[in-house]
Amino acid sequence: MRNHPIPPVTEPLQYRAIGLVRGTYTPKEPEQLTRGALLDSNGVELETVVLGRVLTLMRRHLAMDQSHLWVVYPSLQGERSTAPADRRDLGAQHPRPGSE
Question: What is the pTM of this model?
Fold first, then answer.
């Protein structure tokens, strides 16, 4: 098992924008967890889309009223967007007991 939530590069020349953000996620609608906002530790709110593979982890293991470490993938709306990352896709890093 890796100690770091971001996997190592797989190609000699690879461009990636992946980051870690500690914050609290709030879905736009309580019944639908996939879209919402991440409030980071500095009080900045980020519009987000949760990756499908994280939904089970969120439902079963994460207390949504607590701060967690999130893996963030900046994303653009459409391939011709000129905005700098106007949405963030989220994955969660579920900490091992005693790691925080």
Answer: 0.68
Helix (H, G, I), strand (E, B) or coil at 64: coil
Can you tell me whether residue 57 is helix, strand or coil? helix
Task: Extract the runs of DSSP E, i.e. beta strands, from the chain.
Answer: 19-29, 32-40, 45-50, 68-75, 87-93
CATH number of 19-93: 2.40.50
The answer to whether residues 48 and 37 touch, using CB atoms and an 8 Å cutoff, is: yes
Tens digit of pLDDT for each residue in 56-73?
888 888 888 899 888 887
Q: Tell me the domain boundaries of the chain.
A: 19-93
β partners of residue 22: 69
Please, where are the H alpha helices in the chain? Answer: 52-61
